[in-house]
Amino acid sequence: MAVQYEDFTAKLMNDMDPALLDFVKNKVNTFIKWDLLKFFHENPNTSDTAENIARYVGRSATAVKTEAQQLVEGGLMEMRTVDDLLIYTLTQNEQARQLINRFLHACEDRNFRVKVVYHIIRGMR
Amino acid sequence: MERVKTGIKGLDEMLHGGFLPQTANLVEGAPGTGKSTVGMQFIYNGIARYNEPGLIVTFEEFPKQYYRDAANFGWDFQELERQNKLKVIMSSPEVTRQDLQSVGGAIETFAKEMGAKRILIDSISHFRRLAVDPVELRTIEYSFINALKREGLTSILTRESTALFGDTIQPDDHIAFTVDSYLLLRYVEIESAVSKALLVLKVRGSDHAKDIRQFEITSEGIVVKSKFEGQEGIMSGSPHRMADAFMKAFVENRSRK
Hints:
The complex is a heterodimer of chains A (125) and B (257).
Chain A: H1 2-13, H2 18-26, H3 31-42, H4 50-57, H5 61-73, E1 77-82, E2 85-90, H6 94-106, H7 110-124
Antiparallel strand pairs in A: 1-2
Helix pairs in contact in A: 4-5
Chain B: H1 11-14, E1 24-29, H2 35-48, E2 54-58, H3 63-72, H4 77-82, E3 86-90, H5 93-101, H6 106-114, E4 118-122, H7 134-150, E5 154-160, H8 175-178, E6 181-190, E7 193-203, E8 213-218, E9 221-227, E10 231-232, E11 240-241, H9 242-256
Parallel strand pairs in B: 1-5, 1-6, 2-3, 2-4, 4-5
Antiparallel strand pairs in B: 6-7, 7-8, 8-9, 10-11
């Protein structure tokens, strides 16, 4: 019975655009990554270090550094080095930006947000 | 010489036509006096009226705050960004400084690609965290200002003043010597109401208005009005009528003798 319930929940939570489902499961798989993408989407020309970005989103610098690096590896952010500074920006790749826009636009719907939260928590187990 | 017009009613007249090209211009004032509004209006008018694209670099306020504030004045900053005539960049003093020092940095690239002529730095006060030593801070700010000029940009740099009324000693007062012009925005209390005053303290290489003028932040931006009449001590924040000053200086003192 419990397994059936879990299957039913998973089915419900997987009910979204396949591209967005893949995006949520593999790219935006933590709350901090979600915070970062939302911040950069609203402030697209931000260019700064992980420490300063952490201040902007109200998260710890250590966590933001790790998560930002993962977003770089996932092709959603870019990182460049200027002297001894590691500077992060949103990706300039148009396709990636459109996917981010689609995701964040979808997040305006509460039901979608619930599904994203479900998948992030599942992924954290 | 051609001037870089602010397009702000009354201000270009005080500046005798506008700022000189490729100069650094300091706008200082207490919270809420309109420093950022002067800067935004300078950038917006540059794009809308004079076909001069611009950049805004903010170190604290988020760009979405600028979009919202600008929209309140009827300026669509997001549309201007879509048209590649404006970029609102959020960064930090240390990153912006390194960026301008390096070849092919973001600001240099944006300025070249967009043909940007104007920039707002909001605010230069944040540079204080780059150095404790005032001599080192002056060197950093001087180099930064030179980099903006190198890119052919006419800049407005805002600076925060903590005193709501009157004057305050700033740890980086030397920047007044480094910039090309210096505009002061002040709150003034007159007859139990708070007004705003603007003074052009300095314009290097040019004459300028010497009087202190009242200004307002209207629904269309800043409007500079006429000078304060019959008042003395405006910049102290608590002016008094000139007649009172005359009485004090010439009548009361004489009767004491």
